[in-house]
Design a protein that fits this description.
- By secondary structure, this protein is mostly beta strands.
- It is built from 16 helices and 86 strands.
- α7 packs parallel to α12.
- It is globular.
Length: 1436
């Protein structure tokens, strides 16, 4: 038969349906990838050791040496020789040990290495044959890496495939804004960026405002934090804080981005292992960071020119400063990537990931096929794409080893991490790879690339739960084209009133652009649960657009509420790229509901506290006018509930006019106005002396018993270290021993001391202790020491959840007046509401006497129980005992004893606060010989309505106004974060009236009655280490007749406060301000209302203070050009007060402008010779013609500010003014104006508007405007990638808008290969240049049918070609079958979601075998198309 006849016969066979059956697949299995170790047993080792390696697989797990081992195999066995005699056996006893997985590898290896008679243990290494050809570089993730199976996320996101294109570049830098990075980690130490322009010499060598920033910077500056650790003072060391439990977060994030295994056999590899990491520590060891610190880190990174910033953090509120800092970074070309949050499967806003210019990354399951089963990942309209966030293996910070000064082991350096925090850095690494491929890619382009090439998980394109899909690194690198899909107006979170049409402005530029559509949906949540939530406004529109009006939205008929506005660009490859905005339709101004507006304690000063709620999400502004001066404070977040605080720095007090303005998203305003009386500052810093004692810190018993009956009260506490936190297993007592406290007794009990009493009326004291779900009562067996004998125990709730039904003991108190105390505590079972119970002793047993129901309303859900407290006294003077308790819901109840000894609710008070059950005090505070009681409530971490409450705690003093009636005599709001605190009363000054002593971390506050009968704040202390205490105790410990107070601190010892009697009589002057007046002196201001005169003392910073002069004024000038200290002493009737706390002052010239630059055509950065005291508000930074700035952020470590203005300032000249601004010392700036010349905005509005494939090697481009003909006809202005060229250009006239290109070495259309064309150097006759995001077009397209199917190269000559055949001319879906001439099916290629118009065959069979040389038939099938048959040849 002729060759032609054979082909014809083969064709007939192939076209017969069902004529050819498929072959069975090979039974080949994937190779087991479990890590293996080689173990050499020493010669002469006991046979028992060798036998342990010969056990069956099932027996290995029970062997303590081999736990974690899957199987073992002996390497060298004896064999039979030719004469059937045993052959020589090597004297080498060695085994292959297969470990379960890499997580068990380190522990198995360590056990074997430390076992006697084991000679060596090492991985089963892989070797390669030596070849003469050039050796390819080692892959970043070596096959011999024992952690390779744990790094499966790299395969899921196709990073391994992407590394064929690039593994990154050392010039690409990624900033990690986080908790710091462990710089000594072996897989990170060489990956940390090194600032070559800076050395560690205490000098700002590179002049960027940051001294010694060799490896990044530490921006954490939170002086109010009470926990031990590194929370204050910005410095150049961005290492983690070993005292913080969350300090390893940044190290884990950094490893995901760019770790590189120092040991290729056991190490971590990041997504971009050749990139460099810049540590930017803005979060402390507690995992929390403040907005100003985070913003400073972002701005620093932007001014360094970092390529990428990773932000693995967030919260539910938008902060304008953070938004402005991010926009500045993006404007400088920095890509910003952020985690989408882990608050559960909730569809709620999350910032900063919700900002449109941020790439928002959600947490996908380990296989990347959806969100985790336990649904912790947040989602919604703000997300862009996802990456695996479950069990992400990465570098770890060996905190415990460092904290305990122990050697660092491999187990401490590696491990899995969970959350969107570890999904985001995978995308940050991908962005770094894109920058390595093309450093000119803009942040918008990279966002477009990553979302446009993501692998769909649910629906095609973007969906509400999984965004654009799963990160696909390889595809992103393959299609790394400049592009931009963005909505510009309305802005994200903007509002419209609905009274006028809304122009929708945006950009739709994409190399594969087909059309765009603008649409909206009502609401912003659960969009995937509706059949079709979208209403089209405009589209599909087939014309590209740049910063143009895409549509006009008529919102006049829409109800008020949130809406989702969407711009969707459809591409020629079938993909879509989107941008979405949250827009609110709101035609009414916000309603205001003040919760509290009044005087309060703000940052250690009296001031104004405002807590105001609204029905809208609003921005807030508060103006406080006092004594002719107006101060302005703005809310940090956009939220329905606003906290606004202002401190009276001068301390003079007075009547302040407070005006609060709320502005909703539509720009509508509402205002509330109040008059607030601000008290003058009457605190005296030397009123008490504070001494850190020799007593260990811990949880104190709030009473001072005398267990040994020697007349001296004892200090009892559960001792604990501030480093270890929590509690210890030891309760100890101490007693004063003349000069310090001495140990008295010890009790082994992991319990907290609560109270001391007597439940049976005998001579022996009893001791109540409690922890979680356990309450214990111990009794003395004899007088003289701590009670040791158990008489009562309720431990029903000592369960893993600690939420069982049990008593939480609070007090021992005689409620019924029978001379015997009852046990009082709260109780809760399952979901029932907490109730109080009274337990009474009868002989040797205890029984429930009474259940006390809570009469208050319940607005909050059940929360975890806490260790409660209670207070008792006859509060209303009716002769009956009263019991005061609170609940977690913010309410208080007084129960009163009835004549029959039972308790009944007599009074209650409800608040909308939280945690009203922890702090109480009782004492004669008002001098009326009746006890007042003091209560405390704070803000909720999870309020019932979802609106975050301002961080304000309230102390209330209550007096009896009649029988079972109480009135509030005093209220003290204190601004600051919640922390462990306590309070008590005592007569510290022995005037017969108690003072109130508050431990409110980080402050100690003391209140006493003033001359007019009102309570006054008399003392404040904020020394370090800060106070933090569950309980405090006041007693006459030394026997001198005066009580002192003990409190725990975040240090290692208790602190004791003792009244300074002389200060109490003659308080020193109080500072108002100390400000330099220039280079030669300073100006002092103070208050001393009780002094006849004041002496000023001056001295060097570290030397003695000497009197300068005495004056009767309240202000003075000091002539001294050197840095110095000043202090004051008051005189009353010839008697001197103690010295005031000294103040430091550095005389210096008033700050001048050192530099002005324009980072963008619409912004300006002004730098000064001194650090600024406070960033000026936008309304204080004004252009004479164009008005106030839209935003102002600090830069250059506070030595500069960056102000942004509207687009109209570009190319104009104007004068900038910033009046009434001072430096950090308070000295007003010398320069307050500067003439500016803003640069012209780049006129890059030229772009490719349309691309048409005329035929395979001819392409027609249409530009958005006519271009210069001579430039258009230059072939060198057109670049084809990855190969090929433009050999000829046809363009008519001097200013054509259409050009036709002749291609060589490449074909356009359904080529099966990714191909692009980039235009450069073209401009319009008026000078408008090409927009980089509109200058690239994609030449690759999918086919409409099978009319132009091609196979190439043909033949495939493996001496010249790679082993690959391309089948081109394919539509999006097709099936390719490869047959041998005999009709045997060789391979089937299913093409789904085809993006390049073709597919490739690797010249292997379905079993994976290489095909031999010969002729093959290629049959192509597609829906609604006739099959096509092609032939090809393989030559080996």
């Amino acid at each position: 038969m002729s060759v032609i006849a054979k082909w014809a016969a083969a064709f007939l066979i192939l076209t017969l349906p069902g004529a050819i059956g498929s072959l069975q697949n090979s039974h080949a299995q994937s190779q087991d990838s479990s890590p293996e170790l080689i173990v050499r047993v020493a010669d002469g080792a006991p046979q028992s050791l060798t036998n342990r390696f010969r056990k069956t697989a099932s027996a290995l797990e029970s062997d303590s040496l081999l736990t974690g081992v899957r199987r073992t195999r002996r390497l060298f066995r004896s064999s039979r020789g030719p004469d059937s005699q045993p052959a020589a056996t090597p004297k080498l006893e060695a085994f292959v040990v297969q470990v379960r997985d890499s997580s068990a590898l380190s522990s198995v290896r360590t056990r074997l290495q430390t076992q006697a008679n084991i000679e060596y243990v090492h991985p089963n290494l892989t070797y390669s044959v030596d070849r003469a050809s050039a050796r390819a570089p080692d892959p970043p993730l070596s096959p011999s890496n024992t952690y390779a199976d744990s790094l499966d996320h790299l395969a899921v996101i196709r990073a391994l495939a992407g590394w064929d294109r690039t593994t990154g570049d050392a010039s690409v830098r990624v900033g990690v804004v986080d908790t710091g990075i462990y710089l000594e980690h072996p897989d990170l130490v060489d990956q940390i960026w090194r600032n070559s322009a800076e050395t560690r010499n205490g000098v700002d060598d590179d002049g960027n405002g940051f001294v010694d920033d060799v490896h990044g910077y530490d921006f954490v500056d939170r002086p109010g934090v009470v926990k031990p650790g590194e929370y204050t003072t910005r410095d150049p060391d961005p290492s983690p804080d070993s005292l913080g439990g969350f300090s390893g977060h940044g190290t884990a994030v950094a490893g995901v981005i760019a770790a590189q295994a120092a040991d290729s056999t056991a190490g971590m590899v990041g997504v971009a292992p050749e990139a460099r990491i810049v540590p930017l520590r803005a979060f402390a060891g507690d995992g929390r960071g403040q907005t100003d610190d985070i913003a400073a880190a972002i701005v620093y990174g932007a001014q360094l020119g970092l390529d990428v910033l990773n932000l693995s953090f967030g919260r539910d509120r938008s902060a304008p400063l953070l938004r402005d800092a991010i926009e500045f970074a993006v404007s400088q070309g920095t890509v910003v990537v952020a985690s989408a949050g882990n608050a559960g499967a909730v569809d709620t806003p999350h910032y900063p990931s919700d900002y449109p210019s941020v790439i928002s990354v959600l947490w996908l399951a380990e296989d990347g096929e959806g969100t985790p089963d336990f649904s912790r990942s947040q989602y919604g309209i703000g997300i862009d794409l996802g990456a695996p966030g479950s069990g992400v293996f990465t570098t770890q910070y060996p905190r415990t080893s460092i904290l305990n000064e122990e050697p660092v082991t491999p187990e401490g350096l590696y491990g899995p991490s969970n959350g969107s925090s570890f999904a985001a850095p995978q995308v940050a690494g991908a962005a770094a790879l894109l920058r390595a491929v093309d450093s000119t890619l803009s942040p918008a382009s990279i966002q477009n690339i990553l979302t446009g090439t993501a692998a769909d998980i649910a629906e095609a394109g973007w969906d509400h739960v999984t965004g654009a899909g799963r990160l696909d690194v390889a595809r992103g690198l393959l299609q790394s084209y400049p592009a931009k899909t963005a909505l510009h107006a309305p802005a994200h979170n903007d509002g419209v009133t609905g009274t006028a049409p809304v122009p929708v402005v945006g950009t739709a530029l994409d190399p594969a652009f087909a059309s765009y559509t603008v649409s909206y949906a009502e609401g912003t949540q659960d969009l995937d649960e509706r059949p079709d939530p979208w209403t089209t406004i405009a589209g599909p529109v087939s014309a590209r657009a740049r910063n143009d009006t895409l549509a006009v939205w008529d919102a006049s008929g829409l109800p008020d509420g949130p809406y989702t506005l969407r711009l969707s660009v459809k591409r020629t490859d079938g993909q879509t790229v989107e941008d979405r905005r949250r827009v609110v339709v709101d035609g009414s101004p916000p309603a205001l509901e003040p919760q509290f507006v009044g005087a309060g304690w703000v940052n250690g000063r009296w001031g104004v506290v405002a807590d105001v709620a609204s029905d809208d999400t609003v921005q807030a502004r508060m103006e406080v006018t006092l004594r002719g001066h107006t101060a302005v404070r703005t809310g940090e977040y956009a939220t329905p509930r606003q906290g606004l605080f202002w401190a009276d720095e001068r301390g003079r007090g007075g009547s302040a006019m407070v005006r609060i303005t709320f502005t909703n998203r539509s720009g509508l305003e509402s205002t509330v106005q109040r008059t607030v009386t601000v008290p003058p500052d009457r605190t005296t810093a030397s009123l008490f002396s504070a001494t850190d004692t020799n007593l260990p810190t811990g949880t104190l018993l709030p009473r001072a018993p005398d267990f040994d009956a020697d007349g001296l009260p004892e200090v009892v506490l559960n001792t604990s270290s501030s480093r270890s936190g929590g509690i210890s297993d030891t309760v100890r007592s101490f007693e004063w021993a003349g000069t310090e406290f001495a140990p008295a007794d010890t009790l082994l009990a992991r319990l907290l001391p609560k109270d001391v009493g007597n439940t049976d009326g005998d001579a022996y004291s009893e001791f109540l202790l409690q922890i979680n779900g356990a309450t214990i009562l111990l009794e003395q067996s004899s007088s003289g020491g701590l009670p040791q004998s158990l008489v009562y125990a309720d431990t029903a709730a000592v369960t893993p959840s600690q939420e069982g039904a049990s008593l939480h003991g609070a007090r021992l108190v005689d409620l019924d007046g029978d001379g015997r105390d009852e046990v009082v505590g709260n109780w809760r079972s399952d979901s029932t509401r907490t109730e109080w119970r009274v337990i009474e002793r009868s002989g040797d047993s205890f029984a429930l006497r009474q259940r006390l129901a809570n009469p208050t309303s319940r607005e909050r859900p059940n929360l975890l129980r806490s260790a409660p407290n209670a207070a008792t006294a006859d509060f209303d003077g009716d002769g009956q005992m009263d019991l005061l308790v609170g609940d977690r819901d913010g309410n208080w109840v007084v129960y009163e004893a009835t004549p029959d000894g039972m308790m009944e609710a007599a009074w209650s008070y409800e608040t909308d606060r939280f945690a009203a059950d922890r702090r109480f005090a009782v004492g004669n505070l008002m001098g009326d010989d009746r006890p007042e009681f003091v209560t405390h409530a704070t803000y909720s971490p999870s309020p019932p309505q979802g609106a975050a409450e301002p961080p304000v705690s309230y102390y209330y003093v209550w007096s009896a106004a009649g029988d079972d009636d109480y009135t509030r005599r005093y209220r003290l709001p204190v601004v600051g974060d919640r922390a462990l605190g306590a309070m008590t009363t005592a007569d510290f000054d022995t005037d017969g009236q108690d003072e109130l002593f508050l431990v409110h971390p980080p402050s100690v506050l003391v209140l006493d009655q003033g001359p007019s009968g009102e309570l006054q704040l008399r003392y404040q202390d904020q020394r370090s280490p800060a106070v933090e205490s569950r309980a405090v105790v006041a007693a006459d410990f030394t026997g001198d007749g005066r009580p002192s107070l003990l409190t725990a601190t975040t240090g290692e010892t208790l602190r004791r406060f003792t009244l300074n009697q002389s200060t109490a009589v003659r308080p020193p002057p109080q500072w108002i301000s100390v400000v330099p007046t220039g280079p030669a002196g300073s100006r002092l201001r103070w208050r001393a209302p009780e002094a006849d005169s004041v002496t000023i003392f001056v001295g060097p910073p570290a030397g003695a203070l000497n009197p300068l002069r005495t004056t009767t004024d309240t202000t003075a000038a000091v002539a001294n050009s050197s840095p110095h200290r000043v202090a004051l002493r008051g005189w009353v009737d010839g008697q001197a007060s103690p010295l005031s706390p000294p103040r430091r002052v550095r005389p210096h010239p008033a700050a001048t402008v050192t530099a002005v630059r324009h980072p963008t055509p619409t912004s300006v950065e002004v730098a000064f010779t001194e650090r600024l005291g406070r960033v000026p508000r936008p309304e204080r930074v004004r252009l004479r013609t164009h008005g106030a700035a839209t935003s102002v952020i600090p830069t250059r470590n506070g030595r500069a500010f960056h102000a942004h203005f509207g687009d109209a300032v570009a190319g104009t000249q104007d004068t900038l003014a910033w009046p009434r601004i001072a430096d950090a010392s308070g000295l007003p700036l010398a320069d307050t104006t500067r003439a500016l010349a803003f640069p012209d905005a780049p006129t890059q509005s030229l772009y490719v508007e349309e691309v048409t494939v005329v035929r395979e090697q001819r392409v027609r481009l249409t530009f958005s405007a006519p271009v210069v003909g001579a430039l258009a006809r230059t072939p060198e202005h057109y670049r084809v990638a990855p190969h090929g060229s433009v050999v000829d250009v046809k363009a008519d006239g001097d200013a054509p808008s259409v050009v036709t290109l002749h291609l060589d070495g490449v074909v356009a259309g359904a080529s099966g290969q990714e191909t692009s064309l980039t235009v450069s150097s073209l401009r319009t006759p008026s000078g408008t240049t090409l927009d980089p995001e509109g200058a690239t077009v994609r030449l690759t397209q999918t086919a409409e049918d099978l009319a132009n199917v091609k196979v190439y190269p043909n033949p495939v000559d493996l001496t010249q070609h790679a082993p690959e055949l391309t089948v081109a001319g394919l539509p999006r879906r097709a099936t390719v079958r490869i047959f041998a001439p005999s009709g045997r099916l060789v391979e089937v290629l299913e093409v789904e979601n085809n993006r390049v118009g073709g597919t490739t065959w690797d010249l292997r069979t379905r079993r994976g075998d290489r095909v031999p040389s010969g002729i093959y038939l290629v049959r192509v099938e597609a829906p609604e198309a006739s099959p096509v048959l092609k032939k090809m040849a393989v030559i080996r």
